[in-house]
Design goal:
With about 270 residues, the chain is α/β, with parallel strands linked by helices. It is built from nine helices and 15 strands. It has helices spanning about 5-35, 70-80, 95-100, 115-120, 160-170, 185-190, 205-210, 240-255, 260-265; strands at about 45-50, 55, 60, 65-70, 85-90, 105-110, 120-125, 130, 135-140, 155-160, 180, 200, 220, 230, 235. Strands 5-1-6-15-7 form a five-stranded mixed β-sheet, sandwiched between helices. Helix 2 crosses helix 8 and helix 2 (about 70-80) runs antiparallel to helix 9. It is globular and about 60 Å long. Mean pLDDT is about 90; it is low at about 1-35.
Length: about 270
């Protein structure tokens, strides 16, 4: 074989190698493009809503352990108007504010009375419900006609509620006659059994309990001196944007009739 043949063979080999390198480079670019493909969008944030699960008709668990009630229905419509997804988290009332402050919850809706003391730690929405307290006593008790009649009696309350604060004003903050319970239904059950002489709690909750427990043989006493209480939805003070959205949606509900429809379902017209 002559030198020309060898030169041609060598040139062919070099050309084939160069083409191979170009092919590898092309594959590398394609792989880079694949690797750089945009990731799937993240799941939308779910807002955690703290509710008490034993405060019918505002919020309670049904037989399927699902939280239902007036507050739940209101929040579902609010969330839809705001454009957020929510999950209800049953939380004992006495720890519900701490759970919000620690970031374990994003909102609270649980028949929460707006008070100056609570405003120091949370921000409240515009009021969405007006209530008052009521005294529950045995049906055959005719002696209790007003709050002052409880001064010498054993009185049950739910810890951390406005009813608890009201009883403290009459019996004294550290009175041994105040018996505190985790929920209002537990306090009323204790009243049924004679463990306390009376219970002070939110009127709608007391009336709902008596209506659904006709054998309880309890009645309510309304003291005209009881102040009106506004309920509000609570958010952290560092979340004014969320508060503004809640207030806007709440105003829309009151304007379009959806709030009135929910209210009529639970409390009548």
């Amino acid at each position: 074989m002559n030198n020309t043949f060898f030169r041609r063979a060598r040139l062919f080999a070099l050309t084939a190698g160069f083409i191979g390198l170009l092919g590898l480079a092309g594959c590398g670019k394609q792989e880079d493009k694949t690797a750089a493909a945009p990731q799937a969008s993240a799941q939308p944030r779910v807002y955690l809503v703290g509710v008490e699960s034993a405060y019918a008709p505002f919020s309670s668990e049904n037989e399927q352990k699902t939280v239902v009630g007036f507050d739940i229905d209101v929040m579902k419509v609010l969330a839809k108007k705001i454009g957020i997804e929510v999950k209800f988290v049953p939380t004992p009332f006495e720890s519900i504010f701490n759970s919000l402050a620690q970031g374990d919850l994003d909102l609270l809706i649980s028949a929460i009375t707006i008070t100056d003391e609570r405003k120091k730690s949370v921000s409240f929405s515009d009021p969405y419900f007006v209530a008052t307290q009521a005294i529950a006593v045995p049906a055959n008790d005719t002696k209790v006609t007003k709050m002052d009649d409880l001064k010498t009696l054993a009185v049950g309350t739910q810890s951390g509620t406005s009813g608890d604060e009201l009883v403290q004003q009459v019996l004294g903050k550290n009175s041994a006659k105040i018996k505190r319970f985790e929920s209002t239904p537990l306090a009323l059950k204790e009243l049924e059994g004679g463990g306390v002489d009376a219970v002070v709690a939110d009127e709608p909750v007391v009336k709902n309990y008596i209506a659904n427990n006709p054998n309880s043989k309890l009645r309510t006493v309304n003291d005209p001196t009881f102040p009106k209480e506004d309920y509000g939805i609570a958010v952290r003070k560092d979340d004014p944007e969320l508060l503004a959205k809640v207030n806007k949606a709440l105003a829309e509900m009151k304007a379009d009739g959806s709030f009135a429809a929910i209210s009529a379902q639970y409390f009548g017209k």
